[in-house]
Design brief:
Elements (H helix, E strand, L loop, with lengths): L12 H14 L15 H17 L9 H12 L3 E4 L5 E4 L7 H17 L11 H10 L1
Antiparallel strand pairs: 1-2
Length: 141
């Protein structure tokens, strides 16, 4: 049996849940239930790349300055949440990609970068209309 994901809503539950029952009749399953969150937003992604540009301009390493795309690879490797993906042959792999983060995971990732920047003397821009700032405000209420 191939692994599959389902997004279940109140409107689709009667249709989707029998798929789980059918799969469970073939073999035992592990089912993970979590609140659905949409993929990272354009607002988060825009602010993230703005931050990478600011870091690229302000951080000089022993080897000089690096472009935003290099910082993206650096943070992806060291700060991005890891995700396990099932592969067709039955094995799984661990990936680190910002493209696969949901809204909450992207917020967590950006918090890691924001903290890293502060620890390195860089104070990143925080536009008041950004989703990042709005989500931080909600968490602090």
């Amino acid at each position: 049996m191939q692994p599959f994901r389902l997004k279940v809503t109140a409107q689709t539950a009667d249709y989707e849940l029998p798929k789980i029952k059918q799969a469970a009749q073939q073999q035992d399953l592990t089912v993970e239930v979590r609140i659905y969150q949409k993929e990272r937003t354009i607002s988060q992604n825009s602010l993230y790349w703005m931050w990478l540009g600011e870091i690229a301009e302000k951080i000089q390493t022993e080897k000089g300055y690096f472009k935003a795309d290099v910082w993206h690879e650096y943070f992806k490797k060291y700060k991005c949440p890891k995700k396990t993906k099932e592969m067709p042959a039955g094995k799984s792999i661990v990936t680190q990609s910002t493209k696969e983060l949901d809204v909450g995971e992207m917020q967590f990732y950006m918090n890691q970068i924001y903290g890293w920047a502060i620890n390195h003397g860089v104070f990143l821009s925080l536009p008041s209309n950004s989703q990042y700032v709005k989500m931080e405000s909600k968490q602090n209420d």
